[in-house]
Amino acid sequence: MKKRVYIVYTGGTIGMTATADGYAPVSGFLERQMADMRELTHRSMPEYTIHEYSPLLDSSNMTPAEWLLIAADIRDHYDEFDGFVVLHGTDTMAYTSSALAFMLDGLRKPVVVTGSQIPLCEVRSDARENLITSLIIAAEHAVPEVCLFFGAKLLRGCRAKKVHADGFDAFDSPNYPPLGIAGIDIDIQERFVRLPSSRPLEVAAMAQPVVGALRLFPGISGEVTRNMLQPPLQGLVLEAYGVGNGPENNPGFLEALTDAVDRGVVIVDCTQCLRGTVDLTDYATGSALARTGVVSGYDMTAEAALAKLHYLFAIGLDPGEVRNQMQRDLRGELTLPE
Ligand code: ASP
Questions:
Q1: 286 ligand 1 Cβ < 6 A
Q2: Which residue out of 53, 58, 148 has the highest number of ligand 1 atoms within 8 Å of its CB and is therefore the one to mutate?
Q3: Which SS3 state, helix, strand or coil, does residue 27 take?
Q4: 177-214: pLDDT as tens digits
Q5: Ligand 1 centroid distance, CA of 82 (Å)
């Protein structure tokens, strides 16, 4: 029996065509292109069904409402298919792959998020390779987690980051090894892959919380920080310097953080660096932040931290429980210190 893959087509460059305004997605275009690809009917390829979303979106236009739509779509077709491929724009792909990792609780089948830098219809496109290999991985390989496949690398979805604006090697997971590499063979690194969940798949009903992100910069004022933290904000990813440091000589800034934490805002300290982990005990500038009540995001990407904050508030946890869960490893998104 041929394996069956469900393709969720959300938009992005992969399916775009040239229009008078530049590249844009056009309904039905990608499916027609794929129908003309003889390699997709090869006996080594799975059968697939495409669900094209309307409207097709450039991923810069996506919101958490679309994350939930995709998660619910996968849940609704979960039993009928062996694996899932999500075709998505690259700009916010790492946010969506992080969010899906949290939302699809109890996953036992592969969900592979992919896209391309050049549309499938173009001669020099990277879409063909990304699409074909993602379909094979979703159908044939034992990776029961949300992954992101791009430029020959299979990455954990909640560890991935867009690291190149125009290269074919656009994604990396700087703090976690690739789950696989597609060379002559598709080599899955089993020791890095999560075990299948023992629970049934569930996508919780979700509220729409208000979370945000603030990247520290030299000279940030207490006023800017306080404005950012105003109600109705519930959670903030604070992208701090190095191992999680910020200005300890800036009382306005520190007071704005303390006041927000006292009101129940959950502030998660992540690093602006590409690699490495937050440690708020290393420097006085880190301890000053810790004293305001911010919690460590350890080595989480800012994308995963934002998606996780959103998810935890969306499922209705109170701020105390969100704080706890932010500091625990839920889906392989962070490494706790030994
Ligand atoms: N702007 C596009 C998007 O994210 C870029 C891409 O798909 O590569 O939808």
A1: no
A2: 58
A3: coil
A4: 999 999 999 999 999 999 999 999 999 988 999 999 99
A5: 27
Domains identified in the chain and CATH numbers: 4-192 (3.40.50.1170), 211-326 (3.40.50.40)
Closest listed residue to residue 54, CA positions, set 114, 94, 4, 8 = 8
Question: Quick one: pLDDT at residue 206?
Answer: 86
What's the pLDDT score for residue 1?
87
CB of residue 117 inside a 6 A radius of ligand 1 = yes
Q: Which residues of the chain have pLDDT under 70?
A: none
Torsions phi, psi for 211 (to 5 deg)? -130, 165
Closest CA to 305 of 289, 329, 283, 287: 329
pTM of the model: 0.97
Q: Is 66 touching ligand 1 by the criterion CB < 6 Å?
A: no
Cα of 57 to ligand 1 centre, how many Å?
9
